[in-house]
Protein backbone atom coordinates (compact mmCIF):
# COMPACT_ATOMS: atom_id res chain seq x y z
CA UNK A 1 0.00 0.00 0.00
CA UNK A 2 1.21 3.51 -0.79
CA UNK A 3 2.33 5.27 2.40
CA UNK A 4 3.28 8.64 0.92
CA UNK A 5 3.60 10.51 -2.34
CA UNK A 6 5.99 13.39 -3.00
CA UNK A 7 6.06 14.96 -6.47
CA UNK A 8 9.39 16.51 -7.46
CA UNK A 9 9.47 19.57 -9.72
CA UNK A 10 12.77 20.25 -11.49
CA UNK A 11 13.09 24.01 -11.77
CA UNK A 12 15.37 26.82 -12.83
CA UNK A 13 13.43 29.08 -10.42
CA UNK A 14 13.98 27.50 -7.02
CA UNK A 15 13.41 30.59 -4.82
CA UNK A 16 10.48 31.90 -6.83
CA UNK A 17 8.84 28.47 -6.77
CA UNK A 18 9.36 28.13 -2.99
CA UNK A 19 7.64 31.50 -2.47
CA UNK A 20 4.77 30.59 -4.80
CA UNK A 21 3.90 27.33 -3.02
CA UNK A 22 4.41 28.64 0.52
CA UNK A 23 2.45 31.86 0.05
CA UNK A 24 -0.40 30.65 -2.13
CA UNK A 25 -0.95 27.10 -0.85
CA UNK A 26 0.38 27.27 2.72
CA UNK A 27 3.24 24.80 2.33
CA UNK A 28 5.99 25.07 4.95
CA UNK A 29 9.67 24.59 4.18
CA UNK A 30 10.68 21.25 5.74
CA UNK A 31 14.27 21.35 4.50
CA UNK A 32 16.25 23.65 2.26
CA UNK A 33 19.61 23.37 0.61
CA UNK A 34 21.48 25.06 -2.18
CA UNK A 35 19.80 22.90 -4.85
CA UNK A 36 16.70 21.46 -3.17
CA UNK A 37 13.69 22.67 -1.16
CA UNK A 38 11.35 20.27 0.62
CA UNK A 39 7.83 21.55 1.26
CA UNK A 40 5.14 20.01 3.41
CA UNK A 41 1.66 20.48 4.80
CA UNK A 42 0.61 18.58 7.90
CA UNK A 43 -2.47 16.45 7.94
CA UNK A 44 -3.54 12.91 7.44
CA UNK A 45 -2.05 12.08 5.08
CA UNK A 46 0.57 14.82 5.01
CA UNK A 47 1.18 16.53 1.68
CA UNK A 48 4.70 16.91 0.32
CA UNK A 49 6.33 18.60 -2.64
CA UNK A 50 10.03 18.86 -3.49
CA UNK A 51 11.65 21.48 -5.70
CA UNK A 52 15.03 20.58 -7.23
CA UNK A 53 17.41 22.74 -9.25
CA UNK A 54 17.21 21.17 -12.71
CA UNK A 55 20.96 21.51 -13.27
CA UNK A 56 22.08 19.63 -10.15
CA UNK A 57 24.18 16.49 -10.73
CA UNK A 58 21.63 14.37 -8.83
CA UNK A 59 19.25 14.86 -11.76
CA UNK A 60 19.91 12.21 -14.46
CA UNK A 61 21.63 13.48 -17.63
CA UNK A 62 18.56 13.04 -19.82
CA UNK A 63 16.47 15.12 -17.40
CA UNK A 64 18.66 18.22 -16.98
CA UNK A 65 15.96 20.70 -17.92
CA UNK A 66 13.13 22.46 -16.07
CA UNK A 67 9.78 20.72 -15.85
CA UNK A 68 7.46 20.89 -18.87
CA UNK A 69 3.85 19.95 -19.53
CA UNK A 70 2.71 19.06 -16.02
CA UNK A 71 -0.71 19.65 -14.52
CA UNK A 72 -1.64 18.90 -10.93
CA UNK A 73 -4.94 19.18 -9.09
CA UNK A 74 -5.16 20.56 -5.56
CA UNK A 75 -8.32 20.60 -3.48
CA UNK A 76 -8.96 23.83 -1.60
CA UNK A 77 -11.29 24.47 1.31
CA UNK A 78 -11.81 28.13 0.32
CA UNK A 79 -14.20 29.36 -2.32
CA UNK A 80 -13.38 30.75 -5.74
CA UNK A 81 -13.42 34.42 -4.74
CA UNK A 82 -11.13 33.85 -1.76
CA UNK A 83 -8.71 31.90 -3.93
CA UNK A 84 -8.71 34.65 -6.56
CA UNK A 85 -7.94 37.20 -3.83
CA UNK A 86 -5.07 35.01 -2.59
CA UNK A 87 -3.62 34.78 -6.11
CA UNK A 88 -3.81 38.55 -6.43
CA UNK A 89 -2.31 39.07 -2.96
CA UNK A 90 0.52 36.54 -3.27
CA UNK A 91 1.15 36.38 -6.98
CA UNK A 92 1.95 38.78 -9.73
CA UNK A 93 -0.73 40.73 -11.58
CA UNK A 94 0.14 38.64 -14.63
CA UNK A 95 -0.50 35.40 -12.72
CA UNK A 96 -3.75 36.76 -11.27
CA UNK A 97 -5.06 37.78 -14.68
CA UNK A 98 -4.12 34.38 -16.12
CA UNK A 99 -6.13 32.53 -13.44
CA UNK A 100 -9.08 31.01 -15.28
CA UNK A 101 -11.87 28.46 -14.85
CA UNK A 102 -11.34 25.01 -16.31
CA UNK A 103 -14.47 23.99 -18.26
CA UNK A 104 -13.96 20.28 -17.51
CA UNK A 105 -13.13 20.28 -13.80
CA UNK A 106 -14.88 23.52 -12.89
CA UNK A 107 -11.78 24.48 -10.91
CA UNK A 108 -9.63 27.55 -11.21
CA UNK A 109 -6.34 27.09 -13.00
CA UNK A 110 -3.23 29.05 -12.04
CA UNK A 111 0.29 28.62 -13.40
CA UNK A 112 3.33 28.30 -11.14
CA UNK A 113 6.66 30.01 -11.99
CA UNK A 114 7.76 26.92 -13.94
CA UNK A 115 4.70 26.64 -16.16
CA UNK A 116 3.08 23.88 -14.08
CA UNK A 117 -0.70 24.22 -14.37
CA UNK A 118 -2.48 23.86 -11.04
CA UNK A 119 -6.19 23.08 -11.17
CA UNK A 120 -7.64 24.22 -7.83
CA UNK A 121 -10.95 22.52 -7.07
CA UNK A 122 -13.29 22.78 -4.09
CA UNK A 123 -15.12 19.82 -2.56
CA UNK A 124 -18.61 19.20 -3.91
Automatic annotation (TrEMBL):
Q: What is the protein's given name?
A: Glyoxalase/fosfomycin resistance/dioxygenase domain-containing protein
Mark the transmembrane ranges: none
Q: Which SUPFAM superfamilies match?
A: Glyoxalase/Bleomycin resistance protein/Dihydroxybiphenyl dioxygenase
Ranges of residues in domain Glyoxalase/fosfomycin resistance/dioxygenase: 8-119
What the entry lists under InterPro entries is as follows:
Glyas_Bleomycin-R_OHBP_Dase (IPR029068), Glyas_Fos-R_dOase_dom (IPR004360)
Amino acid sequence: MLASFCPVICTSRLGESREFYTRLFGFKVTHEGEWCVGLGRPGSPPHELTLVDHSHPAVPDGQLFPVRAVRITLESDVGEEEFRRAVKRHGSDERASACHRDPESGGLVVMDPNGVLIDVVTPA
